[in-house]
């Protein structure tokens, strides 16, 4: 038999540049690579935080500013640049989204896989929302005492306060984002909307000690001495929340006059005071304070330890939440936080305030405001539902295949 | 250049520009008073602010209209006065000789230094059970500590030697304010005395 002549080659259309890019971004290869990278980053970060501290390492590996990083394990640099974890997650979210949109075959038997994909995307979005919008601080309350304020763990701000009759009246806050980039020669003029003057800030040092020039050793040549004191830079504190930044400030009066420079330090015992138009103002550099919509009273604090150790077995804070004159009792203990009005209060630690018979126990509650607080939980439900749907779909298909009469008798 | 590429480039440049922090910003953020806002010491000195509080070895009657400020490492007593608070009076110890300090003050106002004859001709005023020389000058004040020069300023003060240590009482303010405040300054100098023991 004579075979028919072969058909002439019909040229297959070459995919466009955008098409190839979309294929790459939605591909399984990229997803696999990103997941391996995430695992590697998590492992390296776990090792690095032993020496560098948790906060520093988290920022280095997973902050959105970190486009790439070079690991340092055990004090040694690993000369392999790696992409930042935030961007790996972002790319993974994009990959999963495009994969779902472009590669999902319109086959409802695969609906479960799509739902599981959505759950993972939801989890990644929850991480991004928490990264950008969550706030963490702590609240220290002595037994019998009350507090309506949490102090941020890391962010330092400059506060300008007008004092009337010896009491704070108006408090204006200059956020940390306006301070932290002022290292070296950079300066910033900060216009204060609620004050009759402005501030000029410079020479920010993330972790500094205030030293007297009379105190040996002699100050470094670059140190700027102000009223007998200067800021001495210290290495970053591994725990980060123990860092005490400092900077130099000047008051800019609205008539164009500039005051002499003065030091601001998170270690200062007292604020710097300014008189302007017969009004008195104080200026401090301190950790950001955020007010709760209610007051917390610590009724009783109980701490139990494993025998013969200082390892806690149980911390319990019996508190009363006071809101608009109404009181509500609650118990906060390890792994059992109190959630109320988008805030979560965790039992973090404790302190003894004072010594001797007058000593009082104080609880340290970690306060977290995270709009995506419950999202990871919900996302896991979605993933579980997706996998369940997929399992059931497969099971039903399998049972149908088994019950179908066989062609081979 | 293709329009899409140009758009991408423009967006990229705009993004980079937006990320660059500005040297001049306006803040509007305020917060309410909290349970953490306790009373603070107003006009604390640098020593008080940075945990190096010291007690002045001298005390004096604060004249009406003067505001006493905390002592600092370099100012044993420290005051401000005048309608806008620009007048300063402070008591401090100094190194060098009496002549060195007189001429340093005069130099700060661009005045010619005094020789022994000039020094001997200076008026003497009672201070701390002894006497000191009265120094006065007017002109452009240059403190020599990196601060801006101040035109139309005046100086009045006393320099004395107490137990081998130079002690100075210095008033610096706009010239007209100094002229008006001279009787007050003299009364203040007379009231100077060693601080009483507190223990």
Q: Would you write up a description of this structure?
A:
- The complex is a heterodimer of chains A (409) and B (199).
- With 409 residues, chain A is α+β, with helices and mostly antiparallel strands.
- In chain A, 28% of the residues lie in helices and 38% in strands.
- Chain A folds into three domains: 17-133 and 374-400, no CATH class; 135-148 and 290-369, no CATH class; 151-289, no CATH class.
- In chain A, a hairpin with an 8-residue loop joins strand 12 (246-253) and strand 13.
- By secondary structure, chain B is an alpha+beta fold.
- Chain B contains five helices and eleven strands; from the N terminus they run H-E-E-H-E-E-E-E-H-H-E-E-E-E-H-E.
- In chain B, the strands form two sheets. In chain B, strands 4-5-6-10-9-8-7 form a seven-stranded antiparallel β-sheet. In chain B, strands 3-11 form a two-stranded antiparallel ribbon.
- The longest helix of chain B has 17 residues, at 3-19.
- The chains are: A alpha+beta (409), B alpha+beta (199).
- Chain A binds chain B through residues 146-149, 151, 159, 161, 163, 166-175, 177-178, 181, 186-194, 210, 212, 214, 226-229, 260, 263, 265, 267-273, 275, 280, 282, 289-291, 295, and chain B through 21-37, 39-44, 46-52, 72-74, 85, 147.
Entry keywords:
heterodimer; A: 409 residues; ten-stranded antiparallel sheet; 6 helices; 20 strands; 38% strand; B: 199 residues; alpha+beta; Protein Transport Mog1p, Chain A; globular
């Amino acid at each position: 038999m004579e075979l028919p002549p072969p058909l002439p080659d019909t040229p297959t259309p070459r995919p466009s540049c955008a098409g190839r890019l979309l294929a790459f971004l939605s591909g399984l290869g990229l997803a696999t690579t990103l997941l391996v990278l995430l695992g590697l980053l998590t492992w390296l970060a776990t090792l690095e935080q032993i020496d560098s501290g948790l906060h520093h390492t988290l920022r280095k590996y997973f902050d959105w500013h970190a486009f790439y990083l070079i690991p340092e394990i055990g004090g040694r640099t690993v000369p392999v640049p790696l992409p930042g974890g935030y961007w790996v997650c972002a790319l993974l979210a994009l990959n999963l989204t495009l994969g779902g949109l472009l590669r999902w075959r319109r086959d409802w038997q695969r609906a479960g896989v799509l739902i599981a994909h959505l759950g993972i995307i939801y989890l990644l979005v929850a991480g991004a929302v928490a990264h950008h919008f969550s706030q963490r601080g702590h609240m220290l309350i002595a037994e019998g005492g009350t507090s309506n304020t949490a102090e941020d763990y890391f962010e330092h701000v400059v506060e300008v306060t007008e004092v009337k009759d010896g009491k704070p009246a108006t408090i204006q806050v200059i956020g940390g984002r306006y301070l932290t980039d002022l290292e070296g020669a950079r300066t910033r003029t900060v216009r204060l909307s609620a004050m009759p003057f402005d501030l000029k800030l410079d020479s920010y040092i993330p972790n500094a000690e205030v030293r007297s020039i009379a105190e040996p050793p002699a100050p470094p040549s670059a140190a700027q001495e102000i009223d007998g004191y200067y800021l001495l830079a210290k290495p970053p504190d591994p725990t980060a929340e123990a860092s005490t930044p400092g900077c130099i400030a000047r008051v800019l009066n609205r008539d164009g006059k500039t005051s002499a420079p003065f030091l601001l330090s998170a270690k200062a015992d007292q604020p710097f005071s300014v008189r302007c138009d017969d009004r008195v103002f104080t200026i401090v550099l301190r950790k950001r304070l955020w007010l709760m919509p209610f007051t917390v009273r610590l009724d009783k604090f109980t701490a139990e330890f494993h025998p013969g150790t200082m390892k806690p077995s149980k911390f319990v804070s019996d508190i009363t939440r006071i809101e608009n004159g109404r009181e509500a009792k609650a118990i906060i203990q390890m792994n059992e936080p109190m959630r109320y009005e988008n805030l979560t209060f965790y039992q973090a630690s404790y302190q003894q305030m004072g010594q001797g018979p007058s000593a009082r126990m104080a609880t340290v509650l970690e306060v977290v405001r995270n709009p995506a607080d419950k999202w990871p939980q919900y996302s896991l439900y979605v993933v579980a539902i997706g996998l369940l749907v997929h399992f059931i779909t497969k099971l039903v298909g399998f049972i149908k295949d088994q019950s179908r009469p066989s062609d081979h008798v | 250049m293709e329009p899409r590429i140009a758009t991408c480039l423009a967006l990229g440049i705009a993004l980079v520009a937006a990320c660059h922090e500005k040297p001049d910003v306006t803040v509007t953020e305020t917060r309410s008073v909290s349970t953490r806002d306790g009373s603070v010491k107003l006009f604390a000195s640098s020593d008080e602010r940075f945990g190096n509080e010291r007690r002045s070895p001298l005390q004096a009657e604060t004249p009406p209209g003067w505001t006493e400020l905390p002592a600092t490492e370099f100012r044993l007593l420290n005051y401000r006065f005048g309608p806008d608070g620009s007048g300063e009076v402070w008591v401090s110890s100094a190194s060098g000789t009496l002549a060195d300090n007189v001429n340093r003050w005069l130099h700060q106002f661009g005045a010619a230094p005094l020789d022994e004859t000039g020094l001997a001709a200076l008026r003497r005023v009672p201070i701390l059970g002894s006497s000191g020389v009265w120094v006065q000058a007017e002109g452009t004040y240059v403190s020599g500590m990196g601060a801006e020069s101040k035109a139309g300023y005046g100086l009045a003060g006393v320099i004395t030697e107490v137990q081998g240590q130079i002690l100075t009482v210095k008033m610096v303010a706009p010239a007209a304010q100094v002229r008006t405040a001279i009787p007050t300054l003299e009364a203040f100098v007379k009231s100077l005395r060693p601080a009483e023991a507190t223990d």
